[in-house]
Amino acid sequence: MAAMDPTRAFIKDVKRVIIKVGTAVVTRTEGRLALGRLGALCEQVKELNSRGFEVILVTSGAVGVGRQRLRYRRLLNSSFSDLQKPQVELDGKACAAVGQNGLMALYDALFSQLDVTSSQLLVTDSDFKDPDFRMQLSETVNSLLALRVIPVFNENDAISTRKAPYEDSSGIFWDNDSLAALLAMELKADLLILLSDVEGLYSGPPSEPQSKIIHTYVKEKHHGEITFGDKSRVGRGGMTAKVKAAIYSASAGTPVVITSGFATDSITKVLKGERVGTLFHQDASLWALPNEVSAREMAVSARECSRRLQSVSSEERKKILLDIADALEANEKLIRTENESDIAAAQQAGIEKSLISRLTLKPGKISSLAKSIRVLANMLADGLILEKTSCPLGVLLIVFESRPDALVQIASLAVRSGNGLLLKGGKEAMRSNAILHKVICGAIPSTVGDKLIGLVTSRDEIPDLLKLDDVIDLVIPRGSNKLVSQIKASTKIPVLGHADGICHVYIDRSADMDMAKRIVLDAKTDYPAACNAVETLLIHKDLLKTEGLNDILLELKTEVAEDLKVADIFLHQVDSAAVFHNASTRFCDGARFGLGAEVGISTSRIHARGPVGVEGLLTTRWILRGSGQVVNGDQGVVYTHNNLPL
């Protein structure tokens, strides 16, 4: 479960919740009810109800549903000649009367399937002018909640004295957003959740790439910064109305969260204290909010620093890497202290031992990392200098799990290859990653900029980053197949999949069994938590009952054979990123392959496969030097191509 955000700490004391569902959530584009979204909503309400929360719904959508039904009915009752005439717009109040009936019937059916009882309460603006009505309303709702019944409110547009639904904005409340805010005050709710068709309040129209989500609204800071887009496609006021209602409710003492009604778990996430949507709170201006850098700002900064890095010479990049290696060794004590804190927290949280093993920076690891960086610094990687040269990809987003040493390797490769970098490590290595990031960035000269490498600290920022296909050039997820698949499905950015491959060892019948035993033991036991540790041991059927096999079956994988013809067939026909003969799988590593370090082991087939070093993070650029030549339709031109000496 994601950790509770500090600004949402008040959630633990929430008992009574009002959930307002917008028309864009209730209905689909063509006006029909969105059954899937309503089903997910009711399931979340059922869960909250069973956990002891008092849940009140305020729903929109009746007019839209009624209009769709009446249009269909009018079509059935019209003659061909009627259809040729201009169609008069349907009366909004009639639409409300028809739609309300169908909408509530659906809520009743869905809640009944979940063994939950719901009730309907229709109100009008004029009702709230009567103090006796307001008192009776409160008593009725309290009685329903005591019986675990879900009250479902809607404005009774069919008999409201308002001139026309969606048009008249006068009165005590003027739409269902303001009704929800009014009910939050009248019924003394602890929290109001406004469900929308976007993830929260953005600094501009959500469709614009530079817009960023505002996680905590502070009126003094954000009021003049926000640019609203078009109003809702179906409701009265869209985000403008929601913000107005949220400010009203929060100032009266009921916090508000605006979040997506399209997600199947947004309500439960809010009530777990996760940082989803936009929070409105009367004390927000008093909080010492973190100086948040948006996903876009972080990516743009990394790109700008990358371009400055590309302009420096190979020798200057070498010096940066050597400075990073020196800084790691100089700060080894501080790094190990933070890493030990991560390990203690992981053990207390009950994280499995294999992950803790990957998390641990063992004695000598910092020196080993510094050594590998110095090896990388002394490698040639400045590219070709003729018509075809190597150049950085741009900005990389790397999502990796618990290993803090991976941060050092990836960062050094980014510097050597000239790429900007955004890193998201596992939360269990939070302290280790933070100190390593600080040490490395401190060694980057101001001529390049310490924002070359950004550290993403919140899981909530990943969806925003995956939308930045105009700024981020490649995503490399290092983790499970599930993680890689989720990221591929969530972004337009190219993804270089570092998924969990299957590491095999095959022992042929011609194998030297002493050599086979030595290799299998090394492949499995040298570092069992590593991705190049053997997982599957394949054995020729003729060895099944031999004594030599019984000695080996304690461990895992590689291919071992003395018959060179068999070995050659194996090496050329096995479809794998790395195939070895008579050697441990543990050699499948960027440093051991002479790459200096690795950003990961790619299980993809395109661009890079196997351990990915500097070359895997470069692409090509064509440079043509001329003296005024033109194509002119290729008239009288014969092209010849020769390799020129360097």
From TrEMBL:
Domain Aspartate/glutamate/uridylate kinase: 15-260
Gene Ontology CC terms, in alphabetical order: cytoplasm
Keywords (A to Z) from UniProt: Amino-acid biosynthesis, ATP-binding, Kinase, Multifunctional enzyme, NADP, Nucleotide-binding, Oxidoreductase, Proline biosynthesis, Transferase
NCBIfam families: P5CS (TIGR01092), proB (TIGR01027)
Organism: Ananas comosus (Pineapple)
Known catalytic reactions: L-glutamate + ATP = L-glutamyl 5-phosphate + ADP; L-glutamate 5-semialdehyde + phosphate + NADP(+) = L-glutamyl 5-phosphate + NADPH + H(+)
Keyword Transferase found: yes
Keyword ATP-binding in record: yes
InterPro entries linked: AceGlu_kinase-like_sf, Ald_DH/histidinol_DH, Ald_DH_C, Ald_DH_N, Aldehyde_DH_dom, Asp/Glu/Uridylate_kinase, G5K_ProBA, Glu/AcGlu_kinase
Family, similarity comment: In the N-terminal section; belongs to the glutamate 5-kinase family.
Domain of life: Eukaryota
One record GO biological process: L-proline biosynthetic process
Name of protein: Delta-1-pyrroline-5-carboxylate synthase
A Pfam family the protein falls into: AA_kinase
Biological or metabolic pathway of the protein: Amino-acid biosynthesis; L-proline biosynthesis; L-glutamate 5-semialdehyde from L-glutamate: step 2/2; Amino-acid biosynthesis; L-proline biosynthesis; L-glutamate 5-semialdehyde from L-glutamate: step 1/2
Residues of the Aldehyde dehydrogenase domain: 295-585
GO molecular function: ATP binding; glutamate 5-kinase activity; glutamate-5-semialdehyde dehydrogenase activity
